[in-house]
Amino acid sequence: MTLGNGLQIRLLCGAGGAEISGIDASRPLGPETVAALRRALAEHCVIFLRDQQLTPQQQETFARHFGPLAPTPFIQPLEGHPDMMRIVREPDEKKKLNFGGRWHSDMTFAEEPVLGTCLYARESPEVGGDTIWSNQMLAFEALSPGMQRLLERLKVMHSAKRSYGPQGTYADDDLKSMRIQASEAALKEQPHPCIRTHPETGRSILFINWVYAIRFQDMTEEESAPLLDFLNRHSQRPEFQIRFRWRKGSLALWDNRSTQHIAVNDYAGYRRVMDRVTIAGDRPYFKENQ
């Protein structure tokens, strides 16, 4: 399939994901190419470029075609690059969880969660280390009409406290090469619509995740748990999933508004080095509640 401007697109699976060839991300991109990539991202949730050779500056420049960069508030940035983090897993690290090893959408605890995330593989294990995304537009559409109507009226409180708070999942399990310390703002609870509208496509999206969705607004965590547990299990169904096998030089950009993702922890004994930048987003909304 041709996108124009010499770009070719190969769809990965029925749930989404598009591998795009004919582009060198180290070079400046013209407006027509950027527009084509933005359309592919909105439609297919994740776009992939293989065999790229990028400096940190070039990766940042590529990501800025989609919007201004947003720093990650609880991770020490790469030296000289305040908006970039380097995720390193050493061969001898034996961890309960790897970084990103639970289903989540990036930084939904923020008032304006990020639009997207751009991840580049500097070193990739010979075996394992895949990333899986789940298309949350499909997750919404697979719910019954009655459940859709119920959720469209609800808001969910998001916070980083369960993962990055003093008693959180990562409190005693930091990666050797990274300092994880949540900001005070990240630990507060932030309300977002349970169903959000994609600002570019107008499609409805199930907007919850295991890591940051704590409870429904005006409900306790105990009262919220049964429905949130159902929705979290539903959101990860195999037919919604997009799986990507990394290799050195692979670049992925995902739409954080319409996906969840998980980093598979199956590469003990191998070194993995990934550079990540995030792209600033806006406040989630549901079109009928504006």
Question: Can you describe this structure?
Answer:
The protein is about 20% helix and about 30% strand. About 40% of the residues are buried. It is of the alpha+beta class and about 290 residues long. It is built from seven helices and 17 strands. Strands 1, 2, 3, 4, 5, 6, 7, 15 and 17 form a nine-stranded mixed beta sheet that branches. A three-stranded antiparallel beta sheet has the order 14-8-16. The chain has a three-stranded antiparallel beta sheet with strand order 10-9-13. It has one domain (about 1-290): 4-Layer Sandwich (Double-stranded beta-helix), CATH 3.60.130.10.
Order of helices and strands: EEEHEHEEEEHHEHHEEEEHEEEE
How is the biggest beta sheet arranged? 9 strands, mixed
Low-confidence segments? none
Characterize the overall form.
globular
Q: What's the CATH C level?
A: Alpha Beta
**CATH arch. level architecture:** 4-Layer Sandwich
Going by CATH, what is the homologous superfamily? Clavaminate synthase-like
Give the terminus-to-terminus CA distance.
37 Å
- Percentage of residues in helical conformation: 10-25%
Quickly give the structural class.
Answer: alpha+beta
Q: Strand content of the residues, in percent?
A: 25-35%
Total count of helical runs of at least 4 residues: 7
- What is the overall pLDDT average? 91
CATH topology: Double-stranded beta-helix
User: What is the total number of structural domains?
Assistant: 1
Radius of gyration: 18 Å
Strand element count:
17
